[in-house]
Design brief:
- The protein is of the alpha/beta class.
- It has helices at residues 3-19, 24-37, 42-57, 80-87, 100-109, 149-159, 175-186, 193-203, 207-218, 227-237, 253-259, 266-269, and strands at residues 70-74, 92-97, 117-121, 136-140, 165-171, 239-245, 273-280.
- The chain has one domain (3-176, 218-280): 3-Layer(aba) Sandwich (Rossmann fold), CATH 3.40.50.150.
- A 7-stranded mixed beta sheet has the order 3-2-1-4-5-7-6, sandwiched between helices.
- Helix 5 links the parallel strand 2 and strand 3 (117-121).
- The longest helix has 17 residues, at 3-19.
- It starts with a helix and ends with a strand.
- It binds S-adenosylmethionine.
- The site of S-adenosylmethionine has 23 residues, from helix 2, helix 4 and strand 2.
- S-adenosylmethionine binds at residues 26, 29-30, 33, 75-78, 80-81, 96-99, 102, 123-125, 140-142, 145-146.
Amino acid sequence: MTASELSVLRQDRSTTAAANGMNKVEIATGELYGSIWNLMDEEAFATFADAHWNKFRNAGLAQDFLRGRICLDAGCGSGRAVRSMLKDGAAKVYAIDIGDECVRNTRDRNAPWRDRLVVEQGSVLALPFPDDTFDFVHCDGVLHHTRAPFAGFCELVRVAKPGVPIMVGLYGAGGLLNFSIYLARAFRHLIPRSLAERALHLVTSDPVKMYVFLDPFYVPIRKVYRTRDVDAWATRAGVEGLRRLEHHYNYRGIDRLLKDYNSFGRWFRGDGYLTYIGFKHNH
Ligand SMILES: C[S@@+](CC[C@H](N)C(=O)[O-])C[C@H]1O[C@@H](n2cnc3c(N)ncnc32)[C@H](O)[C@@H]1O
């Protein structure tokens, strides 16, 4: 596909998404991530999804916890967490994402389990599900890209059944990594994304590395949080037994540096990546 065909396609998508009531930031966010997931062939996606596999296993839930459960993945992206849930025997997985190509990726990549999967385009800020629906709710790397992260967190809690686990992943604040990212973001308008993509293609064909570089610089909203912020959210939204999960990815090399950076010093990682599990208040 040529650059001008790509730009016409992006324009068409924006028109359709705007007609569905999405704002410009949501459209741009969905489009960025959709184009990132589209870079992955099946082999690259399998490696990416495998790195994610141990996350649910290490969350302190019973080994077969997901078996027979009704699960939600809010902001499903490529569909990797959905794949983990389905492989772990979930009875039904509902997934939503703001990006139409994210929805397509999640659907297509999990086609072997399509009878247990429902994927829809939508926002974590207005989940299209009744209260107390799910046995397990997962939302990783999504809320900090929205205009109202705490409202999104409350939505996750609303749709969870009382007493069930909710897993959330957020960017931590502080450290050299965040400082460098925000410094670079201040100048990103000088380098259009299409140019950055072309330059990256010259040095790597690895879609995960492309993701790791494009995501922090070109995503429209990137918020960061302290551990105390997450504690406050949990208290306000009625989440109990909140616990931070330390290690959940198996990335190697440069991927480890940028995506599994919690093992680096605070000078570099600040509060690190914040993955939490907590339980909806059981009234
Ligand atoms: C960093 S990716 C994480 C994807 C996935 N959760 C994972 O861990 O692989 C963020 C995803 O959130 C989606 N997203 C951003 N804002 C959203 C919103 N308001 N509602 C639903 N999804 C959203 C993006 O389109 C993108 O696919």
